[in-house]
From TrEMBL:
Organism: Roseburia faecis
Pfam family of the protein (one): DUF4317
Name of the protein in its database record: DUF4317 domain-containing protein
InterPro entries found in the cross-reference section: DUF4317 (IPR025466)
Length: 428
């Protein structure tokens, strides 16, 4: 069943549209004893009850297809006389009017449903006049078939929380009386399935509230079907395999898992671009797993171990790839990528600043040397009347000579040589 087919049934679970013919139930205590049973024409229920039972029916078909809602197939032997599917067929045909059949079914649930406390088994019978539809999903005013079905819901029954309340008879505040209260649906199923808007007696739609730990024992023993994993279980199994191979304590394992999630998400997006059919599911088969591990740069040795473990875990029923995607992990990976990009930017800026600091330090050193030269020059000019600064090769050419009775320093100058006196360029 797909989402549209589930919603088509649920739209009728309203006061003005509900057509349930009968509702029956059995209250079971923690010792697996049938405490009480009941059966009523649905439309004769008091208003409060009416809405509460509608709420239970709605909850039995709620959640996500493939996670809360699983389609289970009946094996051929269960469709034979005495099989679980055969019992459901008889129960449906009786329209919940046969007390012996109801007792047989209640006993089947009690024997196969593993629950430590009290619980309530609720059964609904309905007949839906399925209208023909045009290609644009508009209803035609003619019936295609009558879809007759059952909904079974199992609800835990727990004591209300202790607390204080007003005791009207005693006219005081005191401990209130604790009642046994029916909780939200824990496990349920729809029989037969409503596939392609038609009756499918070979399948049932199973509901579980707890997607981490569904009542798989009831799938197998209560309904006689093969056990199907929820999307949550598939995700947990896949992540567990990867962690066990890479090393749960390895600090890099979380990063590898995030890379796997991102790469798989990208593969799903690429697949969706070339496949328009919503029912054409992208499966996590061997070929996809191999490519995914290669894209995530996991070593060949570890990749081989992961591939083998995935094949052993899922066998001939590879999960839908989207079932092992963790949306929280994708968000976390986006934050990780942003953080890494920021760290790279900080690193680049640090290198640039370091290079600039080194250049600045070198320039500062040159200025200090220049300042020292200037300071030395000033000191020398204060000590001597004449201070000469010449190139080393020129120093040996300088001679002292008396000219016209004056002591002179004679500096030979070539045609291509220039001189500066007290910072002023001088032509010789």
């Amino acid at each position: 069943m797909n989402k549209k087919e589930v919603l088509e049934l649920k739209r009728r679970f309203k006061k003005e549209a509900a057509t349930f013919t009968r509702v029956c139930g059995c209250y079971v205590d923690g010792n697996h004893n049938k405490v009480c049973k009941f059966g009523n024409t649905f439309l004769n229920l008091e208003e409060d009850e009416f809405y509460k039972y509608l709420e239970i029916a709605n909850k039995a078909l709620s959640g996500t297809i493939g996670n809360n809602l699983l389609e289970l197939k009946f094996p051929i032997e269960e469709e034979e006389v005495g099989g679980r599917q055969h019992i459901l067929m008889a129960l449906r045909a009786s329209k919940l009017e046969d007390e012996n059949l109801l007792d047989t079914f209640y006993d089947l649930v009690i024997d196969t449903y593993d629950h430590a406390g009290n619980y309530l088994i609720v059964l609904f019978h309905d007949a839906y006049d399925v209208m023909s539809r045009t290609s644009d999903n508009n209803n035609l005013d003619e019936s295609e078939e009558v879809y007759e079905y059952l909904i079974c819901a199992i609800c835990p029954v727990d004591l209300s929380k202790p607390g204080l309340g007003f005791l009207e008879e005693e006219h005081r505040i005191g401990p209130r009386v604790r009642d046994w209260v029916v909780g939200a649906v824990d496990t349920a199923f729809l029989f037969p399935a409503f596939n392609d808007r038609s009756t499918d007696i070979h399948s049932t739609l199973f509901y579980t509230k707890n997607t981490k730990e569904p009542h798989s024992e009831f799938m197998a023993n209560g309904l006689g079907c093969g056990i199907e994993r929820t999307a949550t279980e598939q995700k947990m199994a896949f992540h567990s395999i990867v962690r066990n191979v890479l090393g749960a304590e390895d600090e890099h394992t979380d990063d590898v898992l995030l890379d796997l999630q991102q790469n798989l998400s990208d593969m799903i997006d690429e697949y969706a671009e070339t496949h328009d059919d919503d029912e054409d599911v992208f499966l996590l088969d061997k070929e996809v797993v191999t490519k995914l591990l290669a894209d995530s740069e996991i070593s060949e040795e570890k990749a081989a171990k992961i591939e083998k473990s995935v094949d052993e875990a899922f066998g001939e029923k590879p999960p839908a790839a989207e079932n092992v995607i963790d949306s929280k992990a994708l968000v976390q990976n986006e934050l990780r990528v942003e953080k890494m990009a920021l760290e790279d930017q900080v690193g680049t800026l640090t290198v640039q600043l370091t290079e600039k600091d080194e250049a600045l330090a070198e320039r500062t050193s040159q200025l200090i040397e220049k300042q020292e030269e200037i300071d030395n020059y000033i000191a020398e000019t204060k000590t001597y009347d004449v201070v000469l600064r010449v190139k080393p090769e020129k120093a040996s050419q300088i001679k002292s000579q008396v000219i016209n009775g004056q002591k002179c320093l004679v500096i030979p100058m070539g045609e291509d040589e220039h001189a500066t006196i007290n910072g002023v360029n001088t032509t010789v």
